[in-house]
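Hi V.,

Quick status before I head out on leave. The structure for the redesign project is tokenized and pasted below; the design run finished overnight.
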């Protein structure tokens, strides 16, 4: 295993094999520091030797690449760009491909793809910053026409609940849009769905696509499942897997999860988040093509609950990438 980090400036650097350097807690979020090294990726059509230029200018071969594990979130990490880069280099990689990564990073087009496959999503309107600047009144009217409150305002192309707001009164809409537009110039306003928050893990194995036992996000005091709750183990949220569901509900959730994965041309893995309403309807919220893998993350917890160990899960992801 050769750890490669990406600095905030976009430089690929060789990292020490020390996970303790990257703690994930509220006091210290992980950051790759530029240590002066530079990774040289192999050129298309040649061998797969990974090289590094050391800080002193010397060049060293690190061995041939078997596969890349792009353990990345957000822009340039799970939006299809780095996946396309590795495709161009002719280097195998685990996880989502270009199309499914790009589709699921853009919540508008993800919803369009799911609707086209007959999968229920929450009603929404998409707003560009230029529309808001030119005619804020019409945007407010469109939001009001969506239906009953609450509404959720989300950047179209951001992850980990960054820039997301719950709008309980229309007077809160302007501030919510300002927060979302700080992350992206394209924003979704959607109806809040009343129901249980259910998540199911999808894996593309050698024998086809399969779904885990579903889990549930139980909010005890938080308004919604935000960044702190997802990654920092904040109070007010419990991540439960397996969820307490009937056999019929489990079958329906797994079916919708697999159909959603196939609707976006899924590759490797995904976590499918949905709501189970009181009437039994399943409303898909989103797909994440590179879900969190922390000890409190739903994706590995669901597979462990389904009988697949963390190590075997990583092995299956690698094998799926090598089969491409």
């Amino acid at each position: 295993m050769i750890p490669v980090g990406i600095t905030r400036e976009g430089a690929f650097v060789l990292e020490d094999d020390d996970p303790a350097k990257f703690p994930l807690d509220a006091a210290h979020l992980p950051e790759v520091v530029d240590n002066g090294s530079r990774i040289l990726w192999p050129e298309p059509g040649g061998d797969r030797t990974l090289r590094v230029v050391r800080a002193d200018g010397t060049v060293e071969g690190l061995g041939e690449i078997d596969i890349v594990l792009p353990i990345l979130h957000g822009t340039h990490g799970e939006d299809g760009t780095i996946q396309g880069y590795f495709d161009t280099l002719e280097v195998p990689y685990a996880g989502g491909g270009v199309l499914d990564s790009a589709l699921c990073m853009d919540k508008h087009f993800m919803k369009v793809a799911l609707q086209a496959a007959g999968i229920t999503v929450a009603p929404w309107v998409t707003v560009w910053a230029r529309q808001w600047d030119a005619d804020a009144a019409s945007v407010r009217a469109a939001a009001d026409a969506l239906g009953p409150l609450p509404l959720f305002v989300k950047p179209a192309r951001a992850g980990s609940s960054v820039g997301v707001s719950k709008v309980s009164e229309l007077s809160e809409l302007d501030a919510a849009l300002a927060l979302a537009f700080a992350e992206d110039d394209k924003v979704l306003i959607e109806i809040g769905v009343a129901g249980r928050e259910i998540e199911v893990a999808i894996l593309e194995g050698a024998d086809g696509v399969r779904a885990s036992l579903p889990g549930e996000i139980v909010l005890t005091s938080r308004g919604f499942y935000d960044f702190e709750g997802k990654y920092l183990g904040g109070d007010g949220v419990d991540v439960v897997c397996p969820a307490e569901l009937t056999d019929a509900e489990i079958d329906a959730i797994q079916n919708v999860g697999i159909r959603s994965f196939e609707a976006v041309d899924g590759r490797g893995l995904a976590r499918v988040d949905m709501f189970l309403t009181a009437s039994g309807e399943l409303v898909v919220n989103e797909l994440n093509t590179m879900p969190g893998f922390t000890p409190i993350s739903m994706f590995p917890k669901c597979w462990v609950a389904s009988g697949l160990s963390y190590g075997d899960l990583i092995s299956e992801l690698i094998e799926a990438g090598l089969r491409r």
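Above is the designed sequence. The CA atoms of residues 303 and 313 lie 8 Å apart.

G. will cover questions while I'm gone.

Best,
W.
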